[in-house]
């Protein structure tokens, strides 16, 4: 029992360490790309491409290198958008604009009258700001972040592991839809477990769910590029859950500190690119610990399979009905033609 507990603690510590230290390898990856020329890419060039490369001026080569964005530049743009524009606008509104308007109201209407006036002006301004600025920008940020996260993950994978495996488009879409449904249900499962009436147990289970979910978010980019399907990815998380619990623990702690859901999303969007790089550089296969497989994803996988299969059967039944109707229509037209 004590040996198993030591293994669990060791896995949590190793995952936490890999997440924190892995983010520091971003600068090494960019420096390695700049200092070491890729011989493999030179060997893969055709004869015509080599002649063009020789004829190409060196100044154009330098400009093309400068135009190629580095991983650090991509991460900086992502952090600048989420922290410098989105989060900063919320802080300025709540800390500068609203207090300034409240002070101006007190100055113009007096202290006694301003209490009643600000009682309905303050909520109206907050609602208008949320509806006209926060909500549209939040949706736009989610869309932009998805492209940035994928771009950062692909760039990190190419620089450290080579070309990603390109799956079939239909298989890739089905895999992503199933993964999104499963992750949404797993998030709901963690929120329900958080409200268990047993003291402290519900909170521990809720934090465990968030840690594993953040680890799945981070490692999923690498595993998809490696060609692993969603059930294989979930099996790795469940088999080595102490390691992935420790890996997602920093993100779970930092995103739980803000009281606002929007601010928590900003913190996640700022830190998540670093977790993607850390997951890409981590070697989770080295952590082979002998403990029981934690099948927390089992219920949501069964529900996702049921919903997925039900929708797929519904599509097949609708297609069969359409096919039967078209066949009947064709038979009817042939009969009427023969009668004529």
Overview of this protein structure:
- With 340 residues, the protein is an all-alpha fold.
- Helix content is 84%, strand content 0%.
- Helix 6 packs antiparallel against helix 7 and helix 8 packs across helix 13.
- It starts with a helix and ends with a helix.
- Residues 35-50, 58-68, 319-326 and 332-340 have low confidence and may be disordered.
- It is found in: Membrane.
- InterPro entries: CysZ/EI24.
- It comes from Sinanodonta woodiana.
Shape: globular
- Low-confidence parts: 35-50, 58-68, 319-326, 332-340
Instruction: Give, in order, the helices and strands.
Output: HHHHHHHHHHHHH
DSSP strand count: 0
Class based on secondary structure composition and strand pairing: mainly alpha
| Mean pLDDT across every amino acid position | 77
Radius of gyration: 27 Å
Proportion of residues in helical segments: over 70%
Q: Specify the number of helices.
A: 13
Calculate the terminal CA-CA distance, rounded to whole Å.
87 Å
Beta-strand content estimate: under 5%
Largest sheet: none
Brief synopsis:
It is a multi-pass membrane protein. The protein is mainly alpha-helical and 340 residues long.
């Amino acid at each position: 029992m004590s040996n198993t507990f030591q293994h669990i603690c060791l896995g949590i510590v190793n995952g936490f360490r890999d997440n924190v230290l892995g983010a520091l390898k971003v600068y090494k990856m960019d420096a390695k790309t700049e200092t070491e020329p890729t011989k493999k890419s030179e060997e893969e060039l055709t004869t015509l491409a080599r002649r063009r490369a020789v004829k190409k001026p060196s100044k154009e080569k330098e400009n093309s290198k400068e135009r190629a964005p580095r991983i650090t530049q991509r991460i900086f743009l992502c952090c600048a958008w989420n922290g410098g524009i989105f989060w900063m606008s919320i802080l300025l509104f709540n800390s500068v604009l609203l207090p300034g308007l409240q002070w101006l109201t007190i100055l113009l209407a007096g202290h006694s009258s301003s209490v009643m006036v600000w009682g309905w002006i303050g909520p109206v301004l907050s609602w208008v700001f949320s509806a006209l600025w926060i909500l549209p920008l939040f949706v736009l940020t989610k869309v932009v972040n998805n492209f940035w996260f994928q771009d950062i993950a692909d760039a990190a994978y190419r620089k450290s592991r080579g070309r990603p495996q390109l799956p079939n488009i239909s298989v890739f879409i089905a895999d992503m839809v199933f993964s999104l449904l499963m992750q949404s249900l797993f998030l709901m499962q963690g929120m329900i477990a958080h409200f268990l009436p047993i003291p402290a147990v519900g909170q521990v289970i809720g934090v465990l769910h968030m840690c594993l979910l953040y680890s799945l978010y981070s490692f999923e980019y690498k595993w998809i590029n490696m060609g692993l399907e969603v059930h294989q990815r979930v099996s790795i998380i469940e088999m080595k859950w102490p390691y992935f619990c420790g890996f997602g623990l920093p993100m779970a702690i930092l995103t739980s500190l803000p009281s606002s859901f929007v601010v928590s999303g900003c913190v996640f969007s700022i830190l998540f690119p670093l977790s993607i790089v850390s997951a890409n550089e981590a070697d989770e296969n080295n952590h082979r610990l002998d403990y029981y497989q934690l099948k927390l994803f089992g219920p949501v996988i069964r529900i996702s399979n049921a919903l997925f299969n039900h929708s797929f059967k519904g599509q097949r039944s609708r297609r069969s009905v359409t096919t039967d109707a078209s066949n009947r229509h064709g038979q009817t037209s042939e009969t009427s033609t023969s009668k004529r």
